[in-house]
Design goal:
This protein is an alpha/beta fold. The chain is about 40% helix and about 15% strand. It has seven helices and six strands, in the order ββαβααβαβααβα. Strands 1-3-4-2-5-6 form a six-stranded mixed β-sheet, with helices on both faces.
Length: about 180
């Protein structure tokens, strides 16, 4: 979690959350970091809540079964809600594969403060990127329950924005996020 650019005198009453959901390798973290940088350049206090960082710390006790994944989403939503309540924008980069868990998260944050972004990069592109080697391990049966391979990903029905990072340049995607 990277929180920068915050001073109490800068706290904004209407801080919001951008919730980036999509498959592993879709570009969520890259987009989140770029959006956060753009917001900070505008003087907006911003914190990135990244799924990998959560799994390494606050959520290290969780597995990858449905209940654990829902709890991971719940914890991220609670963090985003706390940040927003204190005038800090939250940019969440989290696979969050289940529509029901995402809906509960958005209710926790508050629908007026939460913008759902589907990072809709195709599975084939995500597998080509495979920076962590997860898809290769899942395809060779060394990793069970991989979202998009053995476990389902439920794409949002009506997100505020869909971004396919395989065809949308990063700068353009950030501009779309700022307008969303």
């Amino acid at each position: 979690m990277a929180c920068e650019g915050f001073a109490p005198s800068q706290a904004r009453a209407q801080a919001g959350t951008w919730w980036l959901t999509g498959l592993s390798g879709a570009g969520k973290t890259t987009l989140a970091q770029a959006l956060a940088q753009a917001l900070r350049l505008r003087g907006e206090p911003t914190c990135v809540i990244d799924g990998d960082e959560l799994r390494a710390g606050l959520c290290q006790d969780l597995g990858f079964d449905d209940a654990s994944r829902a709890e991971n989403v719940r914890r991220a939503a609670h963090m985003a809600q706390l940040l927003n309540a204190n005038g800090v924008h939250a940019v969440v980069a989290l696979i969050s594969p289940a529509a029901e868990a995402r809906a509960r998260a958005y209710a926790t944050i508050g629908p007026q403060r939460c913008t759902e972004i589907h990072v809709s990069t195709p599975l084939a592109v995500c597998e080509q990127r495979d920076a962590k080697g997860l898809y290769a391990r899942a395809r060779s049966a060394q990793l069970a329950g991989m979202t998009g391979v053995q476990a389902p990903y439920e794409p949002p029905h009506s997100p505020a924005l869909r971004i396919d990072t395989s065809v949308t340049p990063l700068h353009d995607a950030v501009q779309q996020l700022l307008k969303a």
